Amino acid sequence: MGGKRVVITGMGCVTPLANDLEGSWAAALEGRSGIALITKFDASTYSSRIAGEVKGFEPEKFMDKKEVRRTDPFVQYALAATAMAIEDAGLDLEKENRDRIGVLIGSGIGGLETIERNHTLLMEKGWKRISPFFVPMAVINMASSAVAIHYRLRGPSSAVVTACATGANATGDGFKIVQRGDADIMVVGGSEAVITPMAVGGFCVMRALSTRNEEPTRASRPFDKNRDGFVMGEGCGILILESLDHALARGARIHAEVVGYGMSSDAYHITMPDPKGEGAVLCMEAALRDAGLSPEEVEYINAHGTSTPLNDKTETIAIKSVLGERAYKVPISSTKSVTGHLMGAAGAVEAIFTAMALETGTVPPTANYEEPDPECDLDYVTEGARQVNPKVALSNSFGFGGVNVTLAFRKWEGV
């Protein structure tokens, strides 16, 4: 605690549900899945042939054609989502001090589509056929850099890479930059575009993905007894974080307040979660401590909820450990049930959904929960969207390498 108060004044996203926030949120509330058979490459021989692909995205709406050719899709998604977030925030950058606006957008893997395409050129036609834009198209900080250059934002600029916790880490780190006064505004989030032969193949050989290929929309089923793995997704979530003083001075609309940020490491295994959930407990407790909140104040949790046998079980254990008996009274939902797992973008998109739940008073459901799992026995909002009017919410994100992040948010009800 301490330092400046930080609020969310703008949000934008590109997801498998829709290419904007309004459509994505509406689909999440309806429990309408964006998961389908893979179309980006021929996946007919793969054990998992389904994904949450971004559909009908037109990058030319957000950048010129030359820039499109010189950027990887993960950068294009970030530029698009940022444009929507800035518009949502009502930011007139001509009136702002751009030295006091920073960018922190992460990615789990970065420009993998560019890497795969140029590797094929290297193997088939030699090194001279590699694109001169290959390196800047592929590196992970290029989403942050592209946004900073496009809008001439000269404040703190960085990128974070923590696998599936990336978007949440970027949001939390940006929160801290504003809180300590190093920027008035931070553009934060995560972007990912890895529905590619190598990435899907890599997760297939790990046996991490759902093989429910005959019913794609029902494949991602967090906390359900018959869950059989996660479903890959892609997209981007961007939030405009602003000091409360700055937001009030310009008369900004405020979606929610960011109040806490916790991190931890399982220090257990590169891919499997700690079966006791100890790392998840540590980061949830850290977020509450940072926010000055008690467990009794938590009224909604957007779960990491990947639909894998181990994650959902251990996250449930962790929530019970942190909240005690109250865990059974707190609505919990996993929006990965409809988006799939957006990898490095997941934490940012889920932070947006959490803020929307606070702002609208409605929490989205966990879709496809059909058969209860005795080891996952909490309230996962399985009957459809629910009017809850939560005042305090947590969003969990856990990643490979045992990294854990929890963000704490408070409903905005005025100063």
Counting H and I runs of at least 4 residues, what is the number of helices? 13
**Can you write the helix and strand succession as a string?**
EHEEHHEHHHEHEHEHEHEHEHHEEEE
Q: How many beta-strand segments?
A: 14
Poorly predicted ranges? none
Provide mean pLDDT, rounded: 97
User: How would a textbook summarize the main sheet?
Assistant: 10 strands, mixed
Q: Which structural class is indicated by helix and strand composition?
A: alpha/beta
Strand content: 15-25%
Structure summarized in a few sentences:
The chain is an alpha/beta fold and 415 residues long.
Structure description:
The protein is an alpha/beta fold. The chain is built from 13 helices and 14 strands. A ten-stranded mixed sheet has the order 5-4-6-7-1-8-14-13-9-10, sandwiched between helices. It has a two-stranded antiparallel sheet with strand order 2-3. The chain is globular and about 65 Å long. It starts with 5 loop residues before the first strand and ends with a strand. 59% of the residues are buried.
Itemize the secondary structure elements and their pairings:
Blueprint: E1 6-14, H1 21-30, E2 36-37, E3 50-51, H2 65-69, H3 73-89, E4 101-106, H4 112-125, H5 134-138, H6 142-151, E5 157-158, H7 166-179, E6 185-192, H8 197-205, E7 235-243, H9 244-249, E8 256-265, H10 278-291, E9 300-302, H11 309-323, E10 332-333, H12 336-339, H13 346-360, E11 362-363, E12 386-387, E13 392-399, E14 403-411
Parallel strand pairs: 4-5, 4-6, 9-10, 9-13
Antiparallel strand pairs: 1-7, 1-8, 2-3, 6-7, 8-14, 11-12, 13-14
Helix pairs in contact: 3-6, 7-13, 10-11
